[in-house]
């Protein structure tokens, strides 16, 4: 693309903290916008919903970003791709299908009581602790990690150790590069041990199931692929969900009339969760990085040149040709096919789980705390600079 | 004359989002692998809106709906 303007820095800043970035409003004036990633590399952001949705299913875009000369998100791209793993069809689809079995609606609904139980225990602990409490630390981070631990069959006694390693590796906590590396190594060897333990004594957890499938299925995952998928579930499923729980509660508490509506009728919660997902409060399109294998023409004739790095914009959730009054938080929206979980063959494997955790969190917190409120002025909610997920570092609440 | 609909779903394209099962549980279900199955390929009119919405929302367009005179 011949663009004379300098690339805009991405992700766009939320400033003030609860206001949608101004950039989201005029972004779709052009179908293709050059942006600068945190690494300093540039990428082309596809901005319009129609193009974004079509390109998520376009095989000319490769997800093998570690195999092609793709722009880097961060100087150290560890989280985002592994050249040993083929992330494109056809092979990838067989692998993915082994994992997604564990995420069918029936299997997930069987987990819902556990999610309620964990939420209840966390709120008991909040009650017993100091006020105001930080919702991120007291609730939003522990909930999804405990559910993932359960799914993976991490013994309950290891939960804290496991979480400390994951937090360190994901840089949830501020740590030196050596400490992050130490956590990464510790986590990898813990996962090795865990897989070996399940091999020796299988249970009804996801890892045991993957191992079981492996012994019967000709398409079996290698040990390396098995490790890779377990890591991917952790990387893709933990901080994302935690961030969305925390930020969406902050946004809700800032709109008391919506909170009141929900309290009057909790059957509105799933719609509210969906609409808060559409707002994509904590994220950006960094998850949808692709490499163009060929020239690709967009609906207005603009061309994504072969060899470019592309991001499919989650800000297309604000496309007014698709969503009426897109900047309004409308919890009764029925036609809400947003791009927050992506689309096409890489559609988020954990989307139904994330939805369930968000529904239980929202309903649980509002039921338990009739006076739940932000304990700081909203201007003081801080998003960490340079983070991939623009979640608030803390969400202080009182009740 | 009222118009019915006929629903088809391609389990081979399904990526187990479970969206259709939550949107129209009377019409869509999943097999043991989580891939879409149909409970009712000619659902009564009260489910039509949910079925169209499920078809529009399927991430891989694995659901097809067509009108059928009845
Ligand atoms: C609100 C929370 C979440 C958000 C916003 C989110 C978002 C996304 C997005 C946008 C993708 C697509 C990436 C791409 O197109 O390349 C994705 C993929 C994925 N997500 Fe999530 N996710 C969330 C929660 C979860 C959870 C809870 C899990 C599982 C425990 C999970 C597991 C995965 C996996 C395994 C993939 C890769 C799927 C594939 O490549 O085929 N995610 N997620
Ligand atoms: S909406 Fe589409 S991808 Fe999701 S379960 Fe139904 S058929 Fe499968």
Bound compounds:
protoporphyrin IX containing FE, iron/sulfur cluster
Q: What's the average pLDDT of chain A?
A: 90
How many helix segments of chain B?
A: 2
| Helix content bin of chain B | 10-25%
The computed structural class of chain B is alpha+beta
At the fourth CATH level, what is the homologous superfamily of chain A? Cytochrome P450
Largest sheet of chain B: 2 strands, antiparallel
Mean pLDDT of chain B: 95
Strand order of the largest sheet of chain A: 1-2-3-9-6-4
The CATH architecture name of chain B reads: 2-Layer Sandwich
Written as H for each helix and E for each strand, in order along the chain, the element string of chain B is EHEEHE
Topology diagram in text:
The complex is a heterodimer of chains A (399) and B (70).
Chain A: E1 8-9, H1 23-26, E2 32-36, E3 42-46, H2 49-56, E4 61-62, H3 91-100, H4 105-109, H5 112-128, E5 133-134, H6 135-140, H7 142-152, H8 159-169, H9 177-200, H10 206-216, H11 223-237, H12 239-253, H13 256-264, H14 269-278, E6 289-292, E7 296-297, E8 303-304, E9 309-312, H15 351-368, E10 373-374, E11 396-398
Parallel strand pairs in A: 1-2, 3-9
Antiparallel strand pairs in A: 2-3, 4-6, 5-11, 6-9, 7-8, 10-11
Helix pairs in contact in A: 5-7, 5-15, 7-11, 8-9, 12-15, 14-15
Chain B: E1 3-9, H1 19-23, E2 28-30, E3 36-38, H2 48-57, E4 63-69
Protoporphyrin IX containing FE (HEM) binds at residues 63, 96, 148, 232-233, 236-237, 240-241, 244, 283, 287-288, 340-342, 346, 348-350, 353-354 of chain A.
InterPro entries (chain B): Fe-S_cluster_ET (IPR051269)
Protein name (chain B): Ferredoxin
Organism (chain B): Phytohabitans aurantiacus
């Amino acid at each position: 693309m011949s663009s004379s303007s300098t690339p805009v820095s991405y992700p766009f800043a939320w400033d003030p903290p609860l206001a949608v970035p101004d950039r989201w409003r005029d972004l779709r004036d052009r179908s293709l916008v050059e942006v600068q990633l945190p690494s300093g590399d540039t990428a082309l952001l596809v901005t319009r919903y129609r193009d974004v949705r079509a390109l998520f299913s376009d095989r000319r875009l490769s997800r093998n970003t570690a195999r092609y000369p793709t722009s880097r998100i961060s100087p150290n791209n560890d989280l985002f791709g592994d050249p040993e793993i083929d992330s494109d069809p056809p092979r990838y689809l067989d692998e993915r299908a082994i994992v997604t079995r564990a995420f069918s609606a029936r299997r997930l609904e069987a987990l819902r009581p556990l999610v309620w139980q964990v939420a209840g225990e966390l709120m008991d602990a909040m009650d017993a602790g100091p006020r105001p409490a930080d919702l991120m630390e007291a609730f939003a981070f522990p909930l999804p990690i405990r559910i993932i631990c359960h799914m993976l069959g991490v013994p309950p006694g290891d939960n804290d150790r496991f979480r400390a390693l994951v937090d360190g590796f994901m840089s949830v906590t501020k740590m030196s590069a050596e400490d992050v590396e130490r956590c990464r190594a510790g986590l990898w060897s813990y996962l090795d041990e865990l897989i070996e333990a399940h091999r020796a004594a299988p249970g009804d957890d996801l890892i045991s199931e993957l191992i079981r499938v492996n012994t019967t299925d000709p398409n079996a995952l290698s040990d390396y692929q098995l490790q890779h998928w377990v890591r991917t579930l952790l990387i893709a499923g933990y901080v994302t969900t935690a961030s969305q729980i925390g930020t969406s509660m902050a946004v809700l508490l800032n709109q008391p009339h919506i909170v009141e509506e929900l309290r009057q009728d909790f059957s509105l919660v799933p719609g509210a969760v969906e609409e808060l997902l559409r707002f994509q409060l904590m994220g950006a399109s960094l998850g949808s990085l692709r490499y163009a294998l060929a020239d690709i023409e967009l609906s207005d004739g603009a061309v994504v040149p072969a060899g470019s790095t592309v991001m499919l914009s989650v800000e297309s959730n604000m496309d007014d040709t698709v969503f009426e009054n897109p900047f309004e938080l409308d919890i009764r929206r029925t036609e809400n096919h947003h791009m927050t979980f992506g689309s096409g063959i890489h559609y988020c494997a954990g989307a139904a789980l994330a939805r369930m955790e968000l529904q239980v969190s929202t309903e649980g917190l509002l039921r338990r705390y009739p006076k739940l409120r932000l304990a700081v002025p909203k201007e003081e909610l801080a998003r960490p600079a340079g983070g991939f997920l623009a979640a608030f570092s803390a969400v202080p609440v009182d009740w | 004359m009222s118009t019915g609909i006929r629903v088809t779903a391609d389990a081979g394209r399904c990526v187990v989002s479970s969206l259709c099962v939550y949107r129209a549980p009377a019409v869509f279900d999943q097999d043991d692998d989580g891939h879409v199955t149909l409970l009712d390929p000619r659902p009564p009119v009260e489910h039509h809106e949910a079925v169209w919405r499920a078809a529009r929302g399927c991430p891989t367009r694995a659901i097809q709906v067509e009108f059928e005179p009845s």
